[in-house]
C-alpha cells in the first residue's frame, strides 16, 4: 500500500475553461511527489514538492496565481506538518516570496517556532537567503480581472467567488510509514488586508500524526477554523472510522453546524486514502501502487498506470 500521496487543488466551482488546467496540474504534482517517494524520499519532502509545483502553477490560488486582497495585493499563507514528531512550520500574510510552503518548511527546520507572520516572516526569509520576488510576478491577468470585477458596484458576490481556484494541499505516507501534510493558499478574493484563514492554522488547514493519519483541507476558511476540520477528521479516524468515512463525517459536521462547504484529502498510516468534498468540485489526484487516480466532480474517479522511469 505504501508509499501513497494525495493532492487537492482547491474546492469550489471551477469554470469549465479552467477545469482541464486544474486536473492536469494536480496530476503532474502527484506524479513528481510519487517519484520522490519511490526513490526513498520522505513524506515531508513529497508533500512540500507537490505543493511547491502547485504554487508555481498559475492555475491555482497559491504562490503565482494567488487571488488579490481589497487593495489588489497578494498575501499568502502556508503550513507543513510532520506526523512523526508533530513538528510544524507555518507562515501567514507573506507577500514577496514565490513559494510560501518552502518558507513554512524553513520555519519548521531552522527556528524554535511554529508560525511566523507578515513582516517577521519576510525578515526571516531574507535571513535564510530566500529570494524576494516582486508582487507583479505573483499576479496573473486572471486574478487581476477577477479583482476588478469584484470591485464593480454591480458585482454579484456569489459569481465572483465562483471562479475561485482554491487552496492547494497534499498528504502522504512514505515507505517508513511516516505521514505528513502541506497546505498553501492566496486566501479569499478581496479579503481585508491582514486576513488569515484556516490554511496556516494547525488542526484547521492541516494536521499530521503518525498515530492517526494526515489531512489537508480547502474551502471556506472561516468555517473550517470554527470546526478545526483537519483535526476533527482525525478524531474520527482515532475512533475507528476509515479515512473516507471520517472525511465525510467531518465535512457533514461543518455543513450542518456552520453551513460551510469544503474538501479534504486524507490518508491513514497504512496507506488508505480519501479525497472528499461537499462543494461542487475539487480537483484531486492520488498515486499508489503505480496507479494514478484523479477526479474533479463528485463521484468521478479515473485511473491511469504510472510508468516507472527509474531505469
Automatic annotation (TrEMBL):
GO MF annotation, one: beta-aspartyl-peptidase activity
Designated name of the protein: Isoaspartyl peptidase/L-asparaginase
Catalytic activity: L-asparagine + H2O = L-aspartate + NH4(+); Cleavage of a beta-linked Asp residue from the N-terminus of a polypeptide
Claim: Protease is one of the keywords in the record: yes
Organismal lineage: Eukaryota, Metazoa, Chordata, Craniata, Vertebrata
EC id: 3.4.19.5, 3.5.1.1
Site for Cleavage, residues: 166-167
Similarity comment: Belongs to the Ntn-hydrolase family.
GO terms for cellular component: cytoplasm
Highest rank taxon of the organism: Eukaryota
Species this chain originates from: Xiphophorus couchianus (Monterrey platyfish)
Pfam families associated with the record: Asparaginase_2
Alphabetized UniProt keyword annotations: Autocatalytic cleavage, Hydrolase, Protease
Active site: 167
Keyword flag Hydrolase: yes
UniProt cross-references to CDD domains, sorted A to Z: ASRGL1_like (cd04702)
Binding site for substrate: 195-198, 218-221
Biological process, per Gene Ontology: L-asparagine catabolic process via L-aspartate; proteolysis
Amino acid at each position: 500500500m505504501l508509499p501513497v500521496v494525495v493532492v487537492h487543488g482547491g474546492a469550489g466551482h471551477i469554470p469549465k475553461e479552467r477545469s482541464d488546467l486544474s486536473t492536469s496540474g494536480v496530476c503532474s504534482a502527484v506524479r513528481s511527489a510519487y517519484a520522490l517517494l519511490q526513490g526513498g524520499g520522505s513524506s515531508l519532502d513529497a508533500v512540500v514538492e507537490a505543493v511547491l509545483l502547485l504554487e508555481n502553477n498559475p492555475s491555482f490560488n497559491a504562490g503565482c496565481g494567488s487571488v488579490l486582497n481589497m487593495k489588489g495585493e497578494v498575501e499568502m499563507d502556508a503550513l507543513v506538518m510532520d506526523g512523526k514528531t508533530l513538528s510544524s512550520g507555518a507562515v501567514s500574510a507573506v507577500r514577496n516570496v514565490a513559494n510560501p510552503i518552502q518558507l513554512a518548511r524553513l520555519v519548521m527546520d531552522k527556528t524554535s517556532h511554529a508560525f511566523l507572520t507578515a513582516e517577521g516572516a519576510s525578515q526571516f526569509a531574507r535571513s535564510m537567503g530566500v529570494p524576494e520576488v516582486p508582487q507583479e510576478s505573483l499576479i496573473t491577468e486572471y486574478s487581476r480581472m477577477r479583482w476588478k470585477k469584484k470591485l464593480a458596484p454591480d458585482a454579484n458576490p456569489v459569481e465572483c467567488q465562483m471562479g475561485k481556484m482554491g487552496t492547494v494541499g497534499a498528504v502522504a505516507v512514505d515507505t517508513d510509514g511516516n505521514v505528513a501534510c502541506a497546505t498553501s493558499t492566496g486566501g479569499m478574493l478581496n479579503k481585508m488586508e491582514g486576513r488569515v484563514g484556516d490554511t496556516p492554522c494547525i488542526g484547521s488547514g492541516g494536521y499530521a500524526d503518525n498515530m492517526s493519519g494526515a489531512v489537508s483541507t480547502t474551502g471556506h476558511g472561516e468555517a473550517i477554523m470554527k470546526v478545526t476540520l483537519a483535526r476533527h477528521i482525525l478524531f474520527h479516524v482515532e475512533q475507528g472510522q476509515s479515512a473516507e468515512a471520517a472525511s465525510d463525517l467531518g465535512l457533514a459536521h461543518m455543513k450542518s453546524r456552520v453551513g460551510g462547504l469544503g474538501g479534504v484529502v486524507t490518508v491513514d498510516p497504512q496507506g488508505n486514502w480519501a479525497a472528499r468534498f461537499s462543494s461542487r468540485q475539487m480537483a484531486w489526484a492520488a498515486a499508489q501502487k503505480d496507479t494514478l487516480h484523479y477526479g474533479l466532480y463528485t463521484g468521478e474517479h479515473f485511473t491511469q498506470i504510472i510508468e516507472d522511469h527509474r531505469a
